Amino acid sequence: MSFAPSRQLGFLELKRDGVRFVEELLIEADRIDLSLEDFEMDHICYRVSSLDQYSRICNILLEGSQRLIEAPVNGRLITTFKLTLPIKAAGREIFVIEVPQPKPGVPYDDGFEHAEFVVNIPLAELMRQYSEVTFDTSACAKPTNPEVRILLSSGKSLKFHNMSLEHIIKKEIASQL
Questions:
Q1: If you classify domain 11-176 with CATH, what class do you get?
Q2: Per-residue pLDDT tens digits for 61-117
Q3: Smaller CB count within 10 Å for the chain: N or C?
Q4: How far apart are the C-alpha atoms of 3 and 46, rounded to whole Å?
Q5: DSSP of 13-48, one letter per residue?
Q6: Which helix (H) or strand (E) holds 60?
């Protein structure tokens, strides 16, 4: 489940949706006693329902951001943008938004779906600190930037890893030179 976008979606409306998404996500995290103050909110993810919507959202984001990369990941493209001016919500500034193409055969609603956080402790330690929370560990074995995920009751997700998406992108670009 994702955070539904405003009806007439332009760049400013998309940023407002991002503010509401982040505020609601952090309230929900607080309800399960998940303290996120020490962790950088690395980026947020905007899911799309179709390839046409993918192109549309990418074009809207280009109105106020720079495309960092568009790259194939698990059989579909993911585009990552760095906003010129951040989304400011709940005392945080979020500069990076990723937009994945939909996976074939997997339905998605249009809108913000998850936030990712950089943690400065090993993921195993994070899971020990929050042992009362159920973590999805299926992405722990990823060779690059392993992560754990918490699925919230709203359908939104929180993901945790040790390196920022922007750092990973810079490493990928440098390795291609």
A1: alpha beta
A2: 999 999 999 999 888 999 999 999 999 999 999 999 999 999 888 889 999 999 999
A3: C
A4: 9
A5: HHHHHHHHHHHHHHHHHHHTT---TTSEEEEEEEE-
A6: helix 51-61
Structure tokens at 53: 């919507």
Q: How far apart are CA 67 and CA 61, in angstroms?
A: 8
DSSP track, 138-159: TTTT-SSS--EEEE-TTS-EEE
What is the spatial distance between Cα 23 and Cα 51, in angstroms, rounded to a whole number? Answer: 28
Q: Compute how many other C-beta atoms are within 10 angstroms of the C-beta atom of residue 73.
A: 10
Domain boundaries, the chain: 11-176
**Rounded to an integer, what distance in angstroms lies between the CA atom of residue 54 and that of residue 59?**
9
Find the helix packing angle between 11-31 and 51-61, rounded to 10°: 100
137 Cβ contact list (under 8 Å, min separation 6): 127, 148
